[in-house]
Specification:
heterodimer; A: mainly beta; 6-stranded mixed β-sheet; 5-stranded antiparallel β-sheet; B: mainly beta; 7-stranded mixed β-sheet; 4-stranded antiparallel β-sheet; 11 strands; globular
Chain lengths: 110, 115
């Protein structure tokens, strides 16, 4: 079976840095995705990791450790518009589809 | 604008009604997906179509009936739904359904309320 865990909610202050963790137990592994979803809107793609290490993309970075079944999304210089739900999703080996975590609701305050 | 559109955006229906959700992608993709998103639950995959052929049905009740007439359009026909089917229904597409590094692009969803 597939299991993906991430915190339900996090709060942070504008301008700060926040790290959203995701742990997974899946039957095989073929990549991990992070999506951002604002209330009432479509999830939008943020990052993809398949090899260990850090992928940096502007203010957002994503890290993966396959041996630990662990990933995090790092958001720097937080802005109010970063308030959203962040979804971790894993593509298990042999499957074409994604398994999603419940999402982490991030609230950025002034 | 993600290139994936869904209509209607909001739908209220009774348990005896029949309605359809529509999804259209303008990205030239060949795989399309239906997901259900309920409060405090993960996105749940319902159906996958690759090149118009259904390749996955994730044990979805028969009151949900998908249709994919071509690679750009996907429908979800609804009949005799239950109140617990109230949720956000998301459509997504990707270039090819079986590629490892594929990114799925989502539509804005249809917010469904079953009374």
């Amino acid at each position: 079976g597939q299991n993906i865990d991430q915190p339900t909610e996090m709060t942070a202050t504008e301008g700060a840095i926040v790290q959203i963790n995701c742990t997974y137990q899946t039957s095989g592994f073929n990549g991990l995705f992070w999506y951002q979803q604002h209330a009432g809107e479509a999830p939008t793609f943020l990052s993809y990791n398949v090899l260990d290490g850090l992928e940096e993309k502007g203010r957002f970075s994503s890290f993966l450790s396959r041996s630990k079944g662990y990933s995090y999304l790092l958001l720097k210089e937080l802005q109010m518009k970063d308030s959203a739900s962040y979804l971790c999703a894993v593509k298990a080996e042999g499957y074409s589809t994604l398994t999603f975590g419940k999402g982490t609701m991030l609230l950025v305050s002034p | 604008e993600t290139g994936v559109t869904q209509t209607p955006r909001h739908l209220v229906m009774g348990m005896t009604n029949k309605k359809s959700l529509k999804c259209e992608q303008h990205l030239g993709h060949n795989a399309m997906y239906w997901y259900k998103q309920s409060a405090k639950k993960p996105l749940e995959l319902m159906f996958v179509y690759n090149f118009k052929e259904q390749t996955e049905n994730n044990s979805v009740p028969s009151r949900f009936s998908p249709e994919c007439p071509n690679s750009s359009h996907l429908f979800l026909h609804l009949h005799t739904l239950q109140p617990e089917d109230s949720a956000l229904y998301l459509c997504a597409s990707s270039l090819f359904g079986g590629s490892d590094q594929e990114t799925q692009y989502f539509g804005p969803g249809t917010r469904l309320l079953v009374l």
